[in-house]
Amino acid sequence: MRRATRAAVLALGAIWTLPNTLIGLVGGAAGLLFGAQCRWRRGDLALVFDRWPWGPGGAITFGNVILHTGASLDVACHTYAHRAALCEEAPIRLADHERAHVFQYMVLGPLFLPLYLLCGGISVRNRFERAADRYAASGRGWWPWPTP
After folding, report:
1. pLDDT tens across 58-84, in order?
2. In a domain, 148, yes or no
3. Between these two residues, 65 and 57, which has the higher pLDDT value?
């Protein structure tokens, strides 16, 4: 894809998912008051709040914002299927998994959260999580529905 076309598509995706991004920005700004650190990750197309003080650990994405409880997204983690003892897969990079969610948000915009919740929320059964794991493991397949 030509550079100008790619930039236009990414800008449209960012605008489309802006309501979700605003949720992440509010959460991230609150986290800054409690020691979170903020930085732009160009390759992940996201503003990342590291050391976000709430949650059980890991990361959650809202549009183009990633709220992360650790010091860096560049850590290895297990897939949802591995954690559910359904398979023995090699660890994936958390940044790659969350980048897949950023892509999903940019395509689905305000539809993402309702669809994500209808598909099972945070669980191994959720097609969005399985697609993000697949993308993190292979660099392909972040879209949650099979393509013909």
Report:
1. 999 999 999 999 999 999 988 877 766
2. no
3. 65
**Residue 126 domain-assigned (yes or no):** yes
CA distance 94 to 23: 21
Q: Does 59 reside within a domain? A: yes
Could you give the percent of the chain with pLDDT greater than 90?
82
Tokens of 106: 């940019």
Give one DSSP letter per residue of 89-136, joined into a string.
PPPEEHHHHHHHHHHHHHHHGGGHHHHHHHTTSSSTT-HHHHHHHHHH
For β-strands 65-68 and 92-93, DSSP reports them as unpaired
How far is CA 43 from each of CA 32, 99, 103, 148, rounded to the nearest angstrom?
23, 9, 12, 28
The whole model's pTM is what? 0.92
User: Is there a domain that residue 144 lies in?
Assistant: no
Q: What phi, psi does 47 have (nearest 5°)?
A: -90, 125
Instruction: Find the domain containing 15 and state its range.
Output: 3-138
Distance CA 48, CA 120 (A): 25
Q: What is the dihedral of CA 118, 48, 58, 120, to 10 degrees?
A: 0
pLDDT band at 148 (very low <50, low <70, confident <90, very high): low
Domain count, the chain: 1
